[in-house]
Amino acid sequence: MKDKEQILVHTCCASCSSYVLPHLKENFDVKAFFYNPNIYPEKEYILRLEETKSLCDHLGVSLLIGPYNSYAWTKAISSYKNLPEKSKRCWECYSLRLDNTAKKASDLGIGLFTTTLSVSPHKIYNRIEEEGIRAAKRFSLTFHSEDFKKKNGFKISVRRSKQLGLIRQNYCGCVLSLKESEKKRGKFF
Ligand code: SF4
Predict the structure, then answer these.
(1) Is the pTM of this model over 0.90?
(2) What is the extent of the structural domain holding 92?
(3) How many domains does the chain have?
(4) What atom in ligand 1 is closest to the CA of residue 123?
(5) Sign of CA dihedral 114, 136, 81, 43
(6) Does an H or E element contain 29, and which?
(7) With DSSP H G I counted as helix, E B as strand and the rest as coil, what are the percentages for the chain, rounded to 5?
């Protein structure tokens, strides 16, 4: 039987990965890569990382962990920090994480990569795809372009998260999204 092609999957959290990783495992030899220097505060970063480790153990997927270099995120979005979610601020955030995933794939000799980000209805698929293709070109790789929220991907991730007792976050991840979420819920800073 022909070996499955290897793919490196940028994972943003266990909840989104609970659908994407098993789905990709059907056709690929999957390795996960947790690189999310956007997450604030650090205790939230640790929580999301630990949940992702448990999920990957449960699924039998090997997990690589990138650095928690939050300064890289601050630098990447600094010109756009006054813009709201779903703006250039987020495109830069996608770009940072996809660039580093492509670099990791290249270092590992894996020709294909993707991200769990598109499973969320709050993420703009076309922008993720654009940044993925750009990062792929930079490292001479291929970006696996798939909108994981389609075919009920998001709904399945919600159901599996409940079954596995995973936390569904009430903000995207960065300090700005935390403030925006608190504001919406009436907790003003
Ligand atoms: S809202 Fe989410 S995607 Fe946008 S900058 Fe913050 S962490 Fe990144």
Answers:
(1) yes
(2) 5-184
(3) 1
(4) 3
(5) positive
(6) strand 28-34
(7) 55, 10, 35
Of 166, 122, 144, 170, the closest CA to residue 9 belongs to 144
Q: Which atom in ligand 1 lies closest to the alpha carbon of residue 86?
A: 4
Q: How far is the CA of 44 from the centre of ligand 1 (A)?
A: 14
Q: How far apart are CA 44 and CA 182, in angstroms?
A: 15
For residue 179, the surrounding DSSP H or E stretch is helix 175-184
Residue length of the chain: 189
The tokens for 136 are: 């792929």
Q: Measuring CA to CA, which residue among 94, 66, 68 is closest to residue 80?
A: 94
pLDDT tens readout for residues 42-75: 999 999 999 999 999 999 999 999 999 999 999 9
Phi-psi region of 173 (alpha: psi -120 to 50; beta: other; left: phi over 0): left
Atom 2 of ligand 1, residue of closest alpha carbon? 172
Q: Please check whether residue 189 lies inside any domain of the structure.
A: no
| Ligand 1, residues at Cβ distance < 6 Å | 38, 77, 85, 89-90, 93, 172-174, 176-177
10 domain-assigned: yes
